[in-house]
Specification:
Helix content is 29%, strand content 22%. With 505 residues, it is of the alpha+beta class. It folds into 2 domains: 256 residues, Beta-lactamase (3-Layer(aba) Sandwich); 225 residues, D-Ala-D-Ala carboxypeptidase C, peptidase S13 (D-tyrosyl-trna(Tyr) Deacylase, Chain: A, 3-Layer(bba) Sandwich), CATH 3.50.80. A 5-stranded antiparallel beta sheet has the order 2-1-19-18-17, with helices on both faces. Strand 17 and strand 18 form a beta hairpin. Helix 7 packs across helix 11. It is globular and about 80 Å long.
């Protein structure tokens, strides 16, 4: 699924490196002045002449600035913003923090029938899906476990409703500055304290059929919660796979468009409206498949004020099951390697709830900004609006991001953070970025970096271990870029590569 992979995971050819640097000098010692010259050559390309570029490179041991260009200019960071959320989350919550989601019942059990409701209360857990299970496509395994737990209590029928309680967070489901045009896309999924399957339904198409015809598809989970108008066509063999979704506001009628090559397969994920209602709807469908009929409805508690008041006055006391998420550091691997926006937003809101008592975008962003100011990691003009970096209103300087990385390197959980980041030749976007020669592959392994990409914005921020094993932090932010995204990404890749092959003492 597209949502499962780092944005922009295409093959990057290091043409920029070979053009800027003589191949014979690949492992030669590079002085600080030579390194600066190499950077300037990389940044002199015609396609960045009209763009605003911010670069900051810091020595890990001393914090000295080794190179800077517009380093303290506040720019749109895109997904590099996730590094600031990572730092704040580990500071406030710790790497071992886990989420808990409880399944409770009201009423009495009579003749194997629950005369009451099933209540699911969320705390912002992003992990309820198949992502962490043995079969990653089996996204309802947790729900089936809950069905077994109900049966163990002697419940074989539910007379009442399946109710979702998402009140742990505020009701602001979209970040300020998110494009309404993206609301059917996985990367712009609504944020809810009760989330399931990344708040998406997965769509899998088959290219078995005649060219020009509509491609058959399946939904995972196979739910009636959404209605897909399928306009994906079958193209000739070799046709590029394309897919996009459009969803009307406050609707689960989704139009899918695109192309699939004949004989091929393609998968993508469409974001749903009202994740809480989606959660309990699929739970109800799963219980019924497990032969626990539900006489009532799937309900978002916010839509039933009388029921909400009754539960507040007489809360359920019988807990059937509690699901506990993987550790926070495992979830942050999804944030940084896959650049998964929903995970970042849920973690951001968790910070706000824990520190400010409010799981809203505003309170949560304020908590992170206060943390950065307190740790002297803040440049004037910076602004945090969301956790993912999806908003065009976010601002951060390259210097600030490099300093955040250096701050994390001084914490006991730094090695854990490194494990969450893409790495040259090894993991995520950077796996295919640094050439195929033995020499390039070896150099690439010493480069870690978080990518960023929204319209007109490209970023790469991370850490490099150079030829002397010196820890060097870097951030490259490009705003108002008008060229091809892949070509723009080569700039940050080339700068990181230059640092890695240097021998600065």
């Amino acid at each position: 699924m597209k949502r499962l992979f780092t944005i922009g995971g295409s093959l990057i050819l290091m043409t920029l490196i070979t053009a800027a640097i003589p191949a014979a000098d690949m492992t030669a010692a590079i002085t600080k002045n030579q390194l600066r010259q190499n950077f300037e050559k990389i940044l002199s390309r015609d396609d960045v002449a009209s763009a605003t570029v911010g670069v900051c490179i810091l020595a890990g041991d001393t914090g000295d600035i080794l190179y800077e260009k517009n380093g303290e200019v506040p720019l749109k960071p895109a997904s590099c913003n996730k590094l600031q959320v990572t730092a704040a989350a580990l500071h406030f919550l710790g790497p071992d923090y886990t989420y808990k989601t409880s399944l409770q019942i009201t009423g009495k059990i009579r003749n194997k029938t629950l005369v009451g409701d099933v209540i699911v209360s969320g705390s912002g857990d992003p992990s309820i899906s198949g992502r962490f299970g043995k079969d990653k496509s089996d996204n309802t395994a947790i729900f089936r476990d809950w069905a077994k737990a109900l049966k163990r209590m002697g419940i074989e029928k539910i007379e009442g409703n399946i109710v979702g309680d998402d009140d742990y967070f505020g009701d602001d489901t979209f970040g300020q500055g998110w494009s309404p045009n993206s609301r059917g896309s996985w990367f712009s999924a609504e944020v809810s304290a009760l989330s399931f399957n990344d708040n998406c339904v997965d769509v899998v198409w088959s290219g078995n059929g005649a060219v020009g015809k509509t491609a058959p598809y399946k939904l995972n989970p196979p739910t009636s919660y959404v209605k897909i108008t399928n306009e994906v066509r079958i193209g000739k063999k070799g046709t590029d796979k394309t897919s996009s979704f459009h969803r009307k506001d406050k609707s689960n009628e989704i139009v899918a468009r695109g192309m699939i090559p004949k004989g091929g397969t393609m998968s993508d994920s469409a974001a749903v409206y009202n994740p809480t209602h989606y959660f309990v709807s699929v739970l109800k469908e799963t219980l019924e498949k497990e032969r626990i009929p539900v006489m009532g409805k799937a309900i978002d508690l916010d839509d039933e004020p009388e029921l909400k008041k009754a539960l507040q006055e007489d809360p359920p006391t019988t807990t059937v099951a509690t699901y506990e998420s993987p550790r926070l550091i495992v979830l942050l691997d999804v944030v940084n390697t896959n650049s998964q926006n929903l995970f970042a937003e849920l973690i951001l809101k968790t910070i706000g709830k824990k520190i400010k008592g409010e799981g809203t975008f505003l309170a949560s962003s304020e908590a992170v900004m206060e943390f950065l100011r307190k740790e002297k990691l803040w440049d004037n003009g910076s602004l945090i609006i969301d956790g993912s970096g999806l908003s065009h209103l976010n601002r951060a300087s390259a210097h600030q991001l490099a300093c955040v990385l250096r701050y994390m390197s001084q914490q006991p959980w730094w090695k854990d953070v490194l494990g969450t980041m893409p790495r040259g030749q090894m993991k995520g976007y950077l796996k295919k970025c640094f050439g195929e020669s033995a020499e390039s592959r070896e150099i690439g392994k010493r480069i870690y970096g978080k990518t960023g990409n929204i319209s007109g914005v490209i970023g790469l921020s991370g850490v490099v271990y150079n030829e002397n094993n010196r820890e060097i932090f870097y951030s490259v932010l490009i705003n108002n870029y008008r060229g091809a995204t892949q070509r723009g990404r080569e700039i940050g890749d080339a700068i990181a590569f230059e640092i890695a092959r240097s021998r600065l003492p």
